[in-house]
Predict the 3D structure of the following.
Amino acid sequence: MEHVVAAAVIDARGIVTAWSEGARQLTGHSAAGAVGRAATELLAEELPPLPARAWSRPVVVRHHDGRPVTLAVTACPVLGPGGEPMGWTLTAERPPAPEPTLAGRAFQQASMSMSVFDPRQRYLRLNEVACKLMGVSEDVLLGRHFPETVEDAEHSQGFNWHLRHVAETGRPARYESFTGAPSLNREHAWSIEMWPVRDESGEVGGVALAAFNSTEQYLARQRLALLNEAAASIGTTLDVVRTTEEVVELLVPRFADFACVDLLDWVLGADEPPPVPEGEIALRRVAHGSVHEGTPEAAVHLGGTDTHPPYSPPARALREGRAVLSQAGEPDFLRWLDERDARAPEGRRLRRGVHSMISVPLRARGTTLGALVAIRIGHPDDYEPDDAVFAEELASRAAVCIDNARRFARERTTALALQHSLLPRGLPGQAAVEVAHRYLPSGSTAGIGGDWFDVIPLAGSRVALVVGDVVGHGIPSSATMGRLCMAVRTLADVDLPPDELLTHLDDLVTHLAGYEEGGDDVAELGATCLYAVYDPVSRRLSLAAAGHPAPAVLLPDGRVELVRMTPGPPLGVGGLPFEAVELELPEGAVVALYTDGLVEDRDRDIDRATSELCSALTAPAADLDALCDTVLKAVLPEEPGDDVALLLARTRALGADRVATWDVEPDPAQVAATRQAATEQLTEWGLEEAAFVTELVVSELVTNAIRYGEPPIQLRLIRDRSLICEVADGSSTSPHLRRAHAFDEGGRGLLLVAQLTQRWGSRQTDRGKTIWAEQSLGSR
């Protein structure tokens, strides 16, 4: 292209006074048509205020035929004898096509798309890659407004918005876009950077951009996201068919236009796995799906058998144990496709576009279960080796889930072992109650339910008795039961009253419901719980229930009473209170806690069954274990329809000879007297060897209560299987361990208590708090 330079002169009033031949060639305006006119009349857009000194910048003028033309203009002021401006001389030229400099050639030959726009989003420069993507030469685009050169689509509008934003704010921008280009036949991922280009005065004179084709990285992220999603969405149930459906739902339409899972027959039965045959391989269609409703491309109906010849991609994948890529034009691929058309000609029309396929074996724990097939029809890209790696990883995860479901169908004993592992294996030793328990799993085909029980030692020789039930069967119910059981143990360690503990447990279950897939309300699970605390010193039983049956109490005189209480709502309902009741029990009373499977059934009257329970508790029995068996035999039908948990607890009492209590005046001078009284009590109990540690514990706890607590202050020693020291005061502020510095005068007492005792802690009471510490008494 001929290099043309234009020249013009403008006087101080902005009137053109001279016009060169080059100016005519570039603009189409003759000298007669330009001289004498205001220079602004020849512009296609208004110029911003320009400095009084020489300047150089792109200027868009209006050609004689009306189109805009961008010229690189350089202006120099013409000065009079006194230095006053008399006008301007201007030179202009087209942006040079070939770059004479190394930097310019680097721009033109860059491997990424690079462009430069003026502040009004008009093209100033494009490199070779950018022109190739746009499908036209640079001359066609120079001076044109960007929206005029692309389709009016959302991605184009977003691109133009970023151009304007960078020009207006002067701040660079970086963003990603998944879109096409005029010369491309499919969409690509682009990483785009835009930055302002400033002139010598710091003004933004244009916007430069670089667009990197990040399709490969984008697809890799997509595949990784699918694998992450597969971890959560595949194997949500222990059902073979549902698991295969989850695989298909994950693949279609994001990875395949059609996908199917075919399994060997033995996987759906109870047989042991045979070796993979060498010739034809028969597979049963378990799940399939496509982008078309009804999956019309499928040559095999769900549940039907598909026989694959040795040359077919699925048969090869099973024999070779790896993913097999097949593309249109390959002989074996065409033979397989012809066989599909012959078998189901009604889907021939949709199969015409099939151009790429991946066949992957489903293998778990060294065993081949079947094959996964993914096909692309409308999707423009063929499968690549990276897609095969992804398919193998996904198939490996899916195969494990399918194998798990297969094993569950014939390994009920494993589920039962899981249930027993979540229940307490050996109840901890404690002196408050004597306990016996029974757990009977349901014999129905529904599977193991979610009943549980627990006995939890608490501070002060107290004990918590827990019975709960998660309505439903199978592993999900067992898992929910395990979570609730652990949650109760955790909350019991905080030593909350029964009604407060159930309130916290209800909140926890409500929060857990928000993380369940699909956002199901946990209230639909029907989780119930009864929590009771027995104190052998006061012989009082405090209990509260969340939708759970009230316990029965067998008194020493042979009478049986149901505890009168108002059960709160089931766990997970939220917003409703729980009410605790408290009763005093004589020593030797038997508290019977149970799940509803003991007294409820479709064919039984609950009142009659409860009456049978009360009657069975009065039957003569050698011990609590025998009484458990008697109750179950008398109340349960031959084939109970639900799981049953039964917990019997016979109360014990700690007499006055095992408990010593002192009221302490809030005076530091009382510490020594209190310590002496505790030592004398230990001597009376024959526990002189525990006196040294007890003196330190009493001194520290009583001193802290006087110094930081509020009256009334009380010290209590309890002689049980361990020696328990309790100091109560009227303050609700709980102490905590801290690390004292070298020159601190205090702060080491609680640390000393923690080191010298077996365990220590605090609990809130109606009148304040109680700090306790427990010492082991060895074999006593």
Summary: The first strand starts at residue 5 and ends at 11. Residues 385-410 form the longest helix (26 residues).
